[in-house]
């Protein structure tokens, strides 16, 4: 679950490897959906320089317009909307950030269909589809697209028997089930190493 939430929202969906579609086996789908929805409702949106922030703004007005366009398209294609924080409440916008391009998570579920544009076109925003699958494993789920966009897929499979055990483990800094989803704390040793790497001069040519 932490990996799914991080991939979907940590960079506001603005990466080529952000998770806009999560294909979940039907045996664990209901539990996954409930937990993912709970996390999406608690994602802290705010100033990216604030350590408590989990998700920052979109890059520009065009990105905001596209995000809302595809949210509307999901409804037109008869998706079931689970989380709609597209228009944030005023108290969720950081002080002095009125000019920012603020949005919140949008999550929906729908069965896979090759004619669903919303499942085949990139949004580059916090717009996430949950798709139940009856395939024997996520690796056998066939997800084809007419798009020429280079997509990346990641498979995460565990047996049902182990899912309860692994679901309770959280990375250091991961929120408790009742707390807002804020930024996970980085490992201090890794942060120090990264800082030293930035300070090193480039190698001589």
Strands ordered across the widest β-sheet: 1-4-3-2
Give unreliable regions as ranges: 137-141, 144-153, 159-177, 184-200
Helical stretch count?
Answer: 5
Characterize the quaternary organization of these chains.
single chain
pLDDT averaged over residues = 78
Helix % is 25-40%
Bulk shape: globular
**Beta strands, count:** 4
Main pleated sheet: 4 strands, mixed
User: What is the ordering of alpha helices and beta strands?
Assistant: HEHHEEEHH
| Radius of gyration over C-alpha positions, nearest whole angstrom | 18 Å
Beta-strand share of residues = 5-15%
Structural class: alpha/beta
Could you tell me how far the N terminus lies from the C terminus, measured between alpha carbons in angstroms? 44 Å
Describe the structure.
With 205 residues, the protein is of the alpha/beta class. The protein has five helices and four strands, in the order H-E-H-H-E-E-E-H-H. The chain has helices spanning 2-9, 26-42, 61-76, 160-167, 188-199; strands at residues 21-25, 80-84, 106-109, 127-133. The longest helix has 17 residues, at 26-42. It is globular, with a radius of gyration of 18 Å. Mean pLDDT is 78; it is low at 137-141, 144-153, 159-177 and 184-200.
């Amino acid at each position: 679950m932490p990996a799914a939430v991080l991939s979907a929202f940590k960079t506001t969906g603005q990466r080529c490897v952000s998770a806009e579609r999560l294909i979940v086996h039907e045996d664990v789908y209901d539990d996954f959906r409930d937990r993912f929805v709970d996390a999406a409702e608690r994602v802290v949106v705010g100033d990216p320089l604030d350590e408590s922030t989990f998700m920052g703004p979109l890059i520009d007005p065009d990105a905001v317009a596209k995000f809302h366009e595809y949210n509307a398209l999901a409804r037109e294609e008869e998706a079931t909307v689970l989380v709609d924080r597209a228009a944030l409440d005023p108290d969720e916008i950081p002080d002095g950030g009125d000019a920012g391009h603020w949005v919140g998570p949008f999550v929906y579920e729908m069965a896979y269909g090759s004619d669903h544009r919303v499942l085949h076109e990139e949004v580059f925003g916090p717009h996430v589809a949950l798709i139940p699958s009856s395939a024997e494993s996520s690796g056998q789920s066939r997800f084809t697209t007419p798009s020429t966009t280079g997509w990346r897929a990641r498979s995460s499979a565990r047996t049902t028997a182990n899912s309860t055990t692994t679901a309770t483990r959280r990375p250091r800094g991961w929120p408790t089930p009742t707390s807002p989803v804020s930024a996970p704390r980085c490992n201090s040793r890794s942060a120090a190493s990264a800082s030293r790497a930035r300070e090193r001069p480039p190698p001589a040519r």
